[in-house]
Amino acid sequence: MVRKGMKTILLIAALLMIPTSGIVYAEEGTEPPSTETPSAAQDYPQEETKEPAIHTERNTSSGFDDELPDVDAPKSSQEPAKMESSGSSFLQDFNSDVTPVLNGYPVRWGTFDHGSINLRDTSGSDLYNETKCESGAIYSVTMYPDPGYRYKAGSLENKTTPAIKFTEDQVNKYVFTMPEEEVLLDLEFELIPNYDQTDVTLINEVIQAHPEAFNQDLIDQPEQWDFVTWDTIGNNMLGIIALDLSGRGLQGSLDVRYLSYLKTLSCANNSLTELFINEERINTLDCRQNQLQTLRISWFTVLNCEGNPMDSLEIVNAGIQYRSLSVNISDEDKQAGNAAYIQSFNGSVTSTPTYTLKAFPAADYQFAGWKIGNSIYVKSTTVLEWVNSNTTVQANFKIPLQILLPPNKIVVAVGQELHIIPTVLPENAPNKEVTFVVIDLGKFDLRKDPDNPNAFFLKGKETGSEQFDLYVERFSKNLSVQVIDRAFIQPAFTENTISGVKGSYELDSSLSFTAKGSGLDNQEPLWEDWRWVPVRWAIDKQNADSIQGTFSSGEDQQASLSGLSAGNHELIVEFQKEIYNNWSWEPAETESLSAVFSITEPKPTPAPTPTPTATPKPSESENPTQNVNVPSSQAPRIIKKPKPEVKATATPEPTSTPAVTPKPAEKPGTPPPSATPAQNEIKKGGWPWWTPAAAIPVVAVIGAVLFLKRRSK
C-alpha cells in the first residue's frame, strides 16, 4: 500500500512539474496579461519619431472647389500660400514650405467682350494672368458671362502651338493639362437668343403637321433648327427671315402665311399640292418640282415654279388682284393625259412679269397650239408670255392622222402588181383620202383603186429602186420601192427533210434529229412567195401519251425513247406553209413528214462462273458441329468455366504455343504464385486455411479436449 501510494504521489508531482510559460488564458477580444516587461532593445524596438512632411506634388484630381479645402490666394506669383500642418494623416506627406513654380510656363489671356474668366489650380486658388504653371498639372478655366450672354460652346482654345484638350467639368468650367510651353487662352461670349415666340409656335406647327419630314424631337428646340435663318428684328428679338425646306419629303399643304418676317422660302423637290404664303412680304420663292396647281403671289415676287402642274397663277398687289394668268385645256384632253402648265415665272418690281408655258401631249397625241381668244398664238410646246393684264391661254391637242404601212421598203417583181391598202389613223377619220406624188414612173406604176380612195395598185416595170410619198392631210410617209427580176419562191413540200434518224436504237436511249423546212433562206420575199416551217413533232401517232415537242428552240431536236417498247416506231414532223402577203408571212395549210426506226432489246450477257473456295478444317478446340469458314486468327475459342469454390477467371489460350519454361516443384496445398487472396478465398466467406488466424479455433478445440481428458483422469 505504501508503495502504491508513493507511486501515485510521484506521478502527481511529475505532472505538476510541466512548465506553464507560453500558455495564456484570456477572454476573446482582450490582450493577455504581461508578466514581464520586455526590453526596448529586444522585444519592442521603439519607432523613430519624425515630423510630418508636407507633400509638394499637386493633386491631379479634376474636382477643384468641392474636394480640397479653401486656401487663401497668394499675394503674388512669388508668394505662394502656406499650409500649416495639423498633424493629420492628410498632411503627413506634405512639406511645410510650398516651393513656387519657378521653372513652369505662363498662362496668359486677354480681355473678352461680354464676360471674363478665372484660372485656378487644383487647390482652388485663383491664379493671376501670366502665372507660371507646372507642366503636367491640372488647371481649370471658369467663365463668367455678362447678363444676357453665355459662353459660346466650343470657342475655348489655345492660340499658341500645342493643341490643348479642354474637358467640361461643370457648367462654364473646363479643365486642361498644362503643356510644356506657354498657353494663350481665347474664347467667345455670345448673346443668349431671344426668339420670337410666335415664329417658334408656327414652326412647331409645321413640324407637327409633317412627321414625314421632321423629327418630332425638334419641337421647342429652335437652336437645333438648321433649316431656319434668324435675324435681329429689334429689342434683341430674333425672327425668322428665311426657310430652306428643299428635298425634305414634304407632302400635302404647307402654310407659312403668318411668319411675319419671312422673306425667302425654298421648298423645291417635295410633293406639295398647296402652298400658302404671305404674298406681300416674300420676295424670293423657289417651289420647283412639286405638285402645285395654283399659286397666289405678289406682283414683285421672283418665282421659280418649274416642274409643277400649275394652271393658274395670280399676282396681287396690296391684297388686290393685279394680273393673273390661267392655262386651260379641255376635259377630253385631260382624260386622255394631255397637260399644259405654267412652267416658270420671273417678275420684279421694275419689269413686266414673264411666264414660261409648256404643253405635255399624251401618247398618240400632238400639241396643236396655244390659243388666246380666237387666234392661235404659237404651236411650240414651250412659249414665253408677257402678261400685263388678266389673261387666259387655251392649250389645244389633237390625234394626228397616220398611215400605217409596216415596211418602208416594198419589194416587187417585174410584171407583178400589188394591191396596197394603207391603214389611216385615227379610225374616226375614214374620209381622209390618201394621196401620193410620183416624180418618175420609170421603175413601177401607181394607180388608184376605184373602189377604195385610200388604196392603190403598184406594178413593177423595170429592175431598180425608186421612192414616193403618201399623204394624208399634212402627214406624209416616204416609201422606197425595189423592183427585182426573179421567179416566185414556192418550194414543194417534198423539199422538206428529216435527217439524223438511225435505223435502230436500244431501249431507253435517245434520238437526235434535224428538221429543215424549204424556203426559210428567203431574205427579200415577194408577195406570193411561200415557205415551209417545222412546227411540231411526235413519235408514233400524236396523242396525250405520245412523246412530242415543238421547234421553238430551233431545227435541231432530241427525243428521249424511254418508255417505248421494242419494235418499229415512227417519227412524225409537221410542217406549216406560210405565204408572204401584205408585207407579212401568213399561215396556210400543214403537212407531215415521217421517218421509221426500230428499238431492239439488248443481248443477254452470260453470268460469270463462280470460283469455288476451300473450307479450312476446324481446329480440335472448336465445336465439331460448327463448320464456319473464318480466318484462324478469328477462330472461336473455348472458355473453361471456373471451379465453383474459387472465384477465378480462366485466361484464353494463345493461338500460338509459347516456349515451355520449367517451374520449380510446388508444395502440396500451396496456391499458385499468380493467385491472389481473393481468388483463393473460400466461397462461403471463411478464413483462408493457410493463415495463422485459422489455427486459433483449432488450438482452442485441442486445448479443451486435453483439459477435459486430464480432468476425467
UniProtKB/TrEMBL annotation:
Highest taxon in the source lineage: Bacteria
Transmembrane regions: 687-708
Name of the protein described by the UniProt record: Bacterial repeat domain-containing protein
Composition-biased stretches (Pro residues): 603-615
Compositional bias annotation for Low complexity: 31-41, 648-663
Domain Bacterial repeat: 347-398
Composition-biased stretches (Basic and acidic residues): 47-58
Organism: Holdemania filiformis
